[in-house]
Every structure is written in C-alpha cells, then in structure tokens.
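Bumping with the actual sequence this time:
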Amino acid sequence: MTDEGGVTDEGRGAAESRGSGQAADSVLVALADPTRRQLLELLAAQGEATATTLAGRLPVSRQAVVKHLAVLDAAGLVSGSRVGREVRFTVRPAALDATARWMAALATDWDRRLADIKRVAEAAERDAR
C-alpha cells in the first residue's frame, strides 16, 4: 500500500530486515544523491516536515521530493507518519549509525592489513641488509 507521501508499507524498515552489508549499500546509494543529502539535513534541522514544506526549500518539485523521500525511506533513513491529511517525515538515525559502524569496522580491518604489510616490508628490508 502506498500513502500520499509515496512511501510503501513494504519499504518501511526494509533496510533493517536485510544484512548489514545490504543495508549499508542502501544507505550509501541513498546518500549518493546531493538532493537526498539536503533532504536529510533539512529534516535533521527541522525535526519533521511534509514533502510540500521540503519542496519549498529545494529547487525541485514536490513530486521529486516524494520520490527522494521514498528512496530514503527504503534505506531506513527517514520515516513518514500520517497526521490528518499530511504525511510528516522524520529522520531515523539507526540505519546511518549502522552504516557508520560498518565503515569503522572496515577501516579497522584495512588498518590491520596495512600494518601487516608494513611489518613484512620492514622485515624484508632488514633481511636485505
């Protein structure tokens, strides 16, 4: 079922039901677009807003904002809730936090690998003398 904001029930929490790698993929794809990053910044600053309100702050149509919000919702970054005739969107930081943790773990793994390479290279240099 799709609500007035263009967000489907199936899209809600979809990122949460997938593995962390797939959830991170969804978040990174969603954040790759500068308009979606602006939407997240606006929502973070305002707390909540309608697609119409957000469209008034961006150089895109309301319909484009609704489509961008649907991508953000599918990635678990925002959620929409109906209040009367309006759908109000808010930021859901859990998916972004999970992606940041995934990236930190990846960075730690690469730091370990680089330290291992450095140790092998330094040992080879010592042995060559």
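The tokens above came from a reply further down the thread. Residues 14-128 form a domain with the Arc Repressor Mutant, subunit A fold (CATH 1.10.10.10).
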